[in-house]
Specification:
11 strands; alpha/beta; five-stranded mixed beta sheet; about 45% helix; 14 helices
Length: about 300
């Protein structure tokens, strides 16, 4: 009886320690979810194996110090899915979610509103903005004068585009003397405007870019914003499109777990970059919120660029 009680006590302590060590990851549905695809898949597969493990096997592992006591991904991470950034932000600020990948402009807002509780720790993808048109021939920023360019929202794409227009001495204004920027709420609207031929120029990124090229035979890239950005600001200069955000108490309070977490996310990002079809399959199977028809193409077109950043 005493031996059984001791065994149960040891097992409960072992379980509690692993429960406390778990990092709660928030997955925002859409393209920002893709970098987590393989991390999530590995956790799901290993969790199935754990469910088939007998309690006696676990107790033997606890008592055998010669066994490898490394923690598997499913033991380190739990996952929650979110439909909107606002829903995710509220959970992060409340402490229920430890980490997520979101757009860089959303991250800026979250960091400010969290009063230092949330910080950016890594770049995950770089900007992949492109201006798409049906018109033929070489096109420069000066060729856009007198035309409308449709943009989704007033976030990073909008601000970078305006900055590049200014650097090329192209005014932003209606009429024949400048470029008129037409703001729409979403990239889906830009796709509709382009396909219906209401818009001659749209500034889009993945997955809208792949969506347009799959549905329009005449679509072509007029201007690659990243290439133009490097022309103006220097070769190799890149802007993060999505970033990894974490709660500061995880980054500073659990340095070992945080370091391992960064390594695991980086590995998942690398696999998504090398295996877009594999990442697309995981996304489709687990409802990551990415268009199944174009997901592999969109992932292949994404500029994965993982590197750590100092905590701000």
């Amino acid at each position: 009886m005493k031996k059984t009680f001791c065994l149960l006590f040891i097992f409960s302590v072992f379980f509690a320690e692993n429960l406390r060590a778990k990092i709660n990851i928030g997955i925002l549905k859409g393209m920002d979810s893709i970098p987590f695809a393989f991390l999530y898949s590995d956790a799901q597969e290993n969790q199935k194996k754990l469910e088939n493990t007998e309690v006696s096997d676990v107790s033997e592992e606890v008592n055998d110090s010669s066994e490898d006591q490394s923690v598997q991904p499913e033991e380190k991470y739990s996952f929650s899915f979110f439909e909107t950034p606002l829903e995710l932000f509220s959970k992060m600020k409340a402490g229920y979610i430890d980490a997520s990948i979101i757009s860089s402009e959303s991250a800026e807002k979250l960091v400010k509103k969290s009063n230092g509780q949330v910080c950016v720790c890594a770049s995950v993808t770089s900007i992949d903005f492109k201006i798409v048109t049906r018109r033929k021939g070489n096109i420069s920023f000066s060729d856009l004068i007198g035309n409308k360019v449709y943009v989704a929202g007033e976030g990073l794409a909008h601000s970078v585009f305006r900055a590049l227009l200014a650097k090329n001495s192209v005014p932003v204004e209606e009429g024949s003397a400048g470029v008129e920027i037409v703001v729409k709420e979403s990239q889906a609207e830009l796709v509709t405007e382009f396909l219906s031929k209401n818009a001659d120029y749209v500034l889009v990124s993945e997955p809208a870019l792949s969506d347009i090229f799959n549905r329009s035979k005449n679509a072509r890239v007029a201007i690659d914003i990243q290439e133009q950005y490097e022309t103006v600001f220097g070769y190799g200069k890149k802007l993060p499109r999505s970033v990894l955000v974490v709660r500061r108490d995880l980054a500073e309070g659990s340095p070992k777990e945080f370091k391992n977490f960064l390594a695991d996310v980086e590995f998942s990002v690398q696999r998504a970059s090398r295996k877009p079809r594999g990442a697309a399959g995981i996304a489709a199977k687990n409802d990551f919120g990415v268009n199944k028809r174009i997901s592999a193409q969109a992932i292949a077109g994404t500029k994965f660029n993982f590197y750590t950043m100092p905590l701000d």
